[in-house]
Design goal:
three-stranded antiparallel beta sheet; 13% helix; Immunoglobulin-like; mainly beta
């Protein structure tokens, strides 16, 4: 019995003695290829049988998601923006597996294009008195124009005006023309 206790005591002391005499572990070398993997901020979850994305970080995240339905076929690839410490519900229906393939911070808002702020479209009159819609900017513009008749009836029309051109506008009984809004054309 005495011999058994000595063996147990030796086994209990042995790991402490070995660690005291062992050389400390070497630090990882500063190799740029050996980078520790950081946990993703956005994780897919199930909530009430629907897929959601949950962001655990303190900043907005741009996430790319693959969704594979059962039975094969091509996966669906979608991109989402998940707010800081927030969650969004995905539009996928039915059974399937969601996988996050890219997780990055949201982009900084782009500098506002100077042509998006400036009022490019104007209503002008020709020498004969007929109205024209003039685009003075070097980019195409989409314009919503409102025509108001003498009896108060309003009618809206959408026009696309090429860069630095004038587009004749038929009055068709309108007493007044007014630009409601304008946007740059899709590139």
């Amino acid at each position: 019995m005495k011999g058994f206790l000595i063996i147990v005591a030796a086994i209990a002391v042995l790991p402490g003695a070995l660690s005291a005499t062992a050389a400390p572990l070497r630090e990882m070398p500063d190799n740029p290829l050996l980078v520790r993997v950081k946990a993703q901020c956005v994780q897919p979850r199930k909530s009430y049988n629907r897929d959601i994305l949950v962001n655990a970080c303190k900043q907005c995240r741009a996430v790319t998601v693959y969704r594979q339905k059962r039975g094969g076929g091509f996966p669906i690839k979608r991109e989402f923006r998940v707010p800081a410490r927030g969650k969004i519900q995905l539009s996928f229906r039915g059974p399937g597996k969601v996988r996050v393939i890219a997780d990055a911070p949201c982009d900084v808002p782009d500098v506002v294009d100077q042509y998006e702020i400036k009022d490019c479209a104007k209503i002008a009159k020709r020498k004969d008195g007929s109205p024209v819609l003039v685009n003075a900017c070097p980019v195409c513009r989409g314009v919503v124009l409102e025509k108001v008749a003498a009896n108060g009836h309003k009618e809206r029309g959408t026009y696309t005006v090429a860069a630095r051109t004038a587009l004749p506008i038929p009055l068709r009984g309108a007493a007044r023309l007014q630009i409601v809004t304008e946007i740059p054309c899709k590139r």
